Amino acid sequence: AQTVTQSQPEMSVQEAETVTLSCTYDTSESDYYLFWYKQPPSRQMILVIRQEAYKQQNATENRFSVNFQKAAKSFSLKISDSQLGDAAMYFCAYRRGGGGADGLTFGKGTHLIIQP
Amino acid sequence: NAGVTQTPKFQVLKTGQSMTLQCAQDMNHNSMYWYRQDPGMGLRLIYYSASEGTTDKGEVPNGYNVSRLNKREFSLRLESAAPSQTSVYFCASSADRVGQPQHFGDGTRLSIL
Predict the structure, then answer these.
(1) pLDDT given for residue B96 in this prediction
(2) A43 touches chain B (CB under 8 A)
(3) In chain B, residues 2-21 whose CB comes closer than 8 Å to chain A
(4) CB within 8 Å of A101: residues ≥ 6 apart
(5) In the predicted model, is pLDDT for residue A87 greater than 70?
(6) Distance, CA of B70 to CA of A6 (rounded, Å)
(7) Cβ contact A87:A24 at 8 Å
(8) What is the Cα gyration radius of chain A?
(9) pLDDT reading at B69 higher than 90
(10) At A65, is the pLDDT very low, low, confident or very high (cuts 50, 70, 90)?
(11) How far does the CA of residue A80 sit from the closest CA of chain B (Å)?
(12) Nearest chain A Cα to B94, which residue?
């Protein structure tokens, strides 16, 4: 079974600074997808960024980027120019590749605090 | 475009009562999912459905049943609620194309006394 580990229960960063959230995963698959979801206090689950394992290029979405290290099974999220609205729980998630309706395997999350 | 809609948003039950959580999506997705989120945990998959008429167990299916009523709707039923089922429940859907992200509803906070 796949597992996803987020080793930082909580992180704090000053507004406008850069922060990196860590995620490691364990899988025997070679084809899979990785995601970062944001959960603000409103409880919504919001997709932040997505990475295909077969792509070597790291995904970016505006201020959000990932450092995907396939051999190390590491998938960290970098948030640049942190804003107060970035304060939330962040979850790393894994989905195996191939067809079918596979669910996501989530880490336990990292609580991100933005200091004004 | 509402996306994924869950009802109710909050519910309190007594131990032993039954309850059905409703979920509907308007994105024409074939795949739908039910997760639960407990304090200090990520979401865990309860059941999923690849298409109308099919359902499969996820990581934590015990104590739950599901029904894929049609393409739009996927319900989760607790036949005899237990305090251990106190949680926040999320419904999600995704398109069929491989690797497509899941779109989540706003969740149902369920407390069982």
Answers:
(1) 73
(2) yes
(3) none
(4) B30, B31, B32, B33, B48, B49, B50, B51, B56, B94
(5) yes
(6) 37
(7) no
(8) 14
(9) no
(10) very high
(11) 23
(12) A101
- CB within 8 A of B64, min separation 6: which ones? B34, B46, B47, B76, B77, B78
**Which of B31, B56, B107 is closest, CB to CB, to A43?**
B107
Tokens representing A111 are: 């609580």
pLDDT tens for A9-43 read: 999 999 999 999 999 999 998 889 999 999 999 99
Which residues in chain A have Cβ-Cβ distances shorter than 8 Å to B94? 101
Q: Do the Cβ atoms of B41 and A108 come within 8 Å?
A: yes
A44–B30: do the CB atoms touch at under 8 Å?
Answer: no
Under 8 Å CB-to-CB from B110, ≥6 apart: which residues? B10, B11, B12, B13, B19, B21, B78, B85, B86, B87, B88, B89
Cβ-contact B79, B65 below 8 angstroms: yes
Rg (alpha carbons) of chain B, rounded to whole number: 13
Comparing CB atoms, the residue among B94, B98, B107 nearest residue A98 is B98
Q: Is A112 on the interface with B (CB under 8 A)?
A: no
Pairwise CB contact (< 8 Å): A45 & B104? yes
| % of residues, chain B, pLDDT over 90 | 83
- Is the pLDDT at A99 greater than 80? The verdict is no
